Amino acid sequence: MKSFVPRAVAKGHLPALLAAVSLAGIGLAGVSAQAAEKAPLKIGVIGEEQSVAGGSITSAAQLAADQINAKGGIDGRKIKIFTYDDHSSAADAVRAFQRAVNQDHVNAVIATFISEVALAIEPWAARLHMPTITPGAATTQITKFVHDDYAHYKYMFHGWINSQLVADTACKAMSQVMFGPYHMKSAVIMSEDAAWTSPLDDEFLTCLPKVGVKVVGHIRFNPDTTDFTPIFNKIESEHPDVIMTGISHVGVQPTVQWHNQQVPIPMAGESYQATTSSFWKDTNGDADGVITATAGTPGVAVTPKSIPFIDAYTKRFGVSPSYAGYASFDDVHIIADAVARANSTDPDKIVAAMEKTDYVGVMGRVEFYGKDSPFTHGIEIGKGLITGVVIQWQNGKQVCIWPTDICKAKLEFPSFVKLPTQAAATTH
Question: Based on the domain organization, do 258 and 145 belong to the same domain?
């Protein structure tokens, strides 16, 4: 029987062959180890692309991931963003969430600025054990579920200030820069009928009298409202010094009609559509004078990271981020930081690490309320943490009016706005 001898061996190249085989083995092991090392951190991002405020959620998340990846990723692991448009629909959001978890196998989810949508997702985050953070949905009900049934709902986090705390902050801010200086003593609350505005309005009803402003009217309108003329007529009949707003989805229409109808009462409070620079164009300049709370604004260094983020976002997307964009950008970093500290993508370990978050982002220093707080897993606010800022639209630009230690602009009102007589006499 003729024996088979490899050509390399026959020519005396056995050592070389063995070396090649050995190197091949090492190479395969190296490739395998390298592949495992570079397995991406997958983050699902559910946004509302057709919305002014919601559209920046996915954009900001992608920017954050790209910047992290450009620096080598997180512990050598790149971040991969999976984006989904929920079309402002709770049903579509749930389907997107299920797809993210079951098909795309994400490790965490950033989802929505709409409270009703976040509340629809929350039971699924619990059921599927998926760490989830909302960059905008403001209802206190989200964290109440976590507080009341921690073991079940612990996977849900709140990445923006809840509406109760937003209202409380607005009262304090406006008392310093507007109510006091302009001698405003009465207000009408005007808010869209939505989950996030219920705690907002409740807190306005509590905090406004505490700062010397009497609530003389309270209007909740359908978010589908297209004609605000009757609403503004009613408000004018109450003769308030200020309109305190709770507006998210319909900010353009009431702003345009406020201006066109020459409603002589300033609008302040919360108008989330007004937090991005596209709002001026969207309202054809009728945004002039509008006041709203937000996470940040161009040219203002809430932290050393704020302006570089705003500039990078604006350069890439042609518009400044909404408040939800600031939060979404920070949320990517918060998740990445938690995974790095946990050294794991196990959901429970990510949750435990997120609970210990102490991260300085573009919005401020981020920590989360603990189990003993009624806002469990909500973002903490206060001096040295997250405060938010208050801006006013003036001559096509967002200017920062509060907090006064970082914001230097002064209020300016459109000519049709009539300030209280005493204020007009003392301030002009």
Answer: no
Same domain, 323 and 262: no
Please list, in sequence order, all residues whose beta carbon lies within 8 angstroms of the beta carbon of residue 228, skipping any fewer than 6 positions away. 221, 253, 254, 257, 258
Do 260 and 187 lie in one domain? The reply is: yes
In a shared domain, residues 51 and 75: yes
Phi then psi dihedrals of residue 17, to 5 deg: -65, -45
**Does 210 map to a domain?**
yes
- Domain of residue 110: give its range: 41-161+304-366
Q: Are 314 and 277 in contact (CB under 8 A)?
A: yes
Taking each helix axis from N to C terminus, what angle separates 55-70 and 306-317, rounded to the nearest 10 degrees?
110
Q: Tens digits of per-residue pLDDT, 341-370?
A: 999 999 999 999 999 999 999 999 999 999
Mean pLDDT, residues 253-258 taken together: 92
Element (H, E) at 246: strand 242-247
For the chain, what is the domain count? 2
Within 10 angstroms of residue 32's Cβ, the number of other Cβ atoms is 10
* pLDDT for the residue 7: 40
Q: What is the pLDDT of residues 131-173, one digit of tens each?
A: 999 998 999 999 999 999 999 999 999 999 999 999 999 999 9
Instruction: Give backbone dihedrals phi and psi of 216, rounded to 5 degrees, phi first.
Output: -105, -5
252-260 and 229-238 helices, crossing angle to 10°: 60
Output the domain CATH number for residue 80.
Answer: 3.40.50.2300
pLDDT at 54: 77
